[in-house]
């Protein structure tokens, strides 16, 4: 082979090697870049923090109670006039230490109602007692706290029948239905001898008299006072804490009332299931035994 041919061959091989080298470098650079992007994405991915025990407990508790069908009741009473804000000795008022009593200098004006999610019978002897809780602030809680102590009845508990889901919604959404007794012809009712409204078509109704002022359920310290000053009792322990409510949480007050009179009972002579079956709240919707 001649020297010229050998030199030409060497040049061709050198050219071929140089042309393939950038591709190898480029390929290696791409792999390195991909690894950097993967590591960056892995480092930037937010790590989910464990849910705090109290919040987890509330989540689980809500899921627990969703599996319990609850009867639906509506409490009805008077609504004090907007101009009547003066309170004096003689009627129920809120107090976190002990219930006090004041009375209105101006008469009440209209009716009001609220759907209850926690109505229960708590005693039969020696006095028939019922209880329910209301969110605060709310018009109904303010109303019941403002009624004169001397009234023979302060409110009516209406147990809704299976066909009254619309009434339950109206009395549970004051933002959409601020005056359910008036708007659109209003919810139908009749008056008791104390001039309190009993809703038409209910499964049952009872007149009640509040036995004391509301009990603040958001203040365990106030509840602990009922145990006395003994340091060995619950009042001397951790009950003297009133936690701050977080966003989305609501405070409630407990009302205890004595049943004074039965105003309505279910009609057991009819076979109409929507009239003699209760309205139930189950898994976040209204239903009834009649639907089964």
TrEMBL record:
InterPro entries: Flavin_Rdtase-like_dom (IPR002563), NADH-dep_flavin_reductase (IPR050268), Split_barrel_FMN-bd (IPR012349)
Family annotation (SMART domains): Flavin_Reduct (SM00903)
Keyword entries, A-Z: Oxidoreductase
Ranges where the Flavin reductase like domain occurs: 65-288
Transmembrane segments: none
Keyword Oxidoreductase part of the UniProt annotation: yes
GO molecular function, one term: riboflavin reductase (NADPH) activity
Official protein name in the record: Flavin reductase like domain-containing protein
Source organism (scientific name): Panaeolus cyanescens
High-level lineage: Eukaryota, Fungi, Dikarya, Basidiomycota, Agaricomycotina
